[in-house]
Write a structure and sequence with these properties.
The chain has helices at 2-18, 27-32, 56-68, 73-84, 98-129, 140-153. The chain has 157 residues and is mainly alpha-helical. Among the domains are: 24-88, Helicase, Ruva Protein, domain 3 (Orthogonal Bundle); 94-127. The chain starts with a helix and ends with a helix.
């Protein structure tokens, strides 16, 4: 029992120490990973692997300059967005029109589900209104035809 408890403690300790692995630990890394390179490679600014990229080194230098000047994260994002356009932001900022970019996919999904439910109910009501057509009463001609078909297909045997 003691060995199992010790193993559990070691596993939990290892898990908790590894939780932070791979995450940016500095402010520069955190902010740089929320900006996109504007060279057209569609990469995060600090991860642009475009050989000879003309933009990433300039933008990284700008990021260093902004941070050394003491700008807050929001100010840096606003400066980059004003200079390069909103495409420089890896994700829309919270507030103003950018809230629409976060909310609209969910609104469209919910409206689509509601539209499908309403369409199915409308079809169901339309189908329920249509009364089934009762079969025509048998006539001597239809009975004779039915008997001939049974005889030819050996259905009656």
């Amino acid at each position: 029992m003691y060995k199992r408890s010790l193993q559990l403690v070691l596993v939990l300790l290892a898990a908790f120490t590894m939780l932070g692995a791979g995450t940016p630990s500095t402010r520069f890394d955190r902010v740089g990973h929320k900006l996109m390179c504007t060279c057209g490679c569609a990469e995060i600014l600090l991860e642009c692997n475009h050989v000879g990229c003309p933009n990433s080194s300039v933008e990284i230098a700008e990021l260093h300059t902004q941070m050394n000047a003491g700008a807050s994260d929001a100010q840096i994002y606003n400066v980059f967005a004003a200079k390069y356009g909103p495409v420089v932001l890896a994700a829309p900022l919270r507030g103003g029109f950018d809230d629409v970019a976060w909310i609209m996919p969910f609104v469209v999904l919910i409206l689509g589900i509601l539209a499908i439910v309403l369409l199915l109910r409308m079809w169901q009501r339309r189908h329920a209104r249509l009364a089934p057509v009762p079969p025509a009463p048998p006539t001597p001609e239809s009975e004779a035809l039915r008997n001939r078909i049974r005889n030819e297909t050996n259905y009656g045997e």
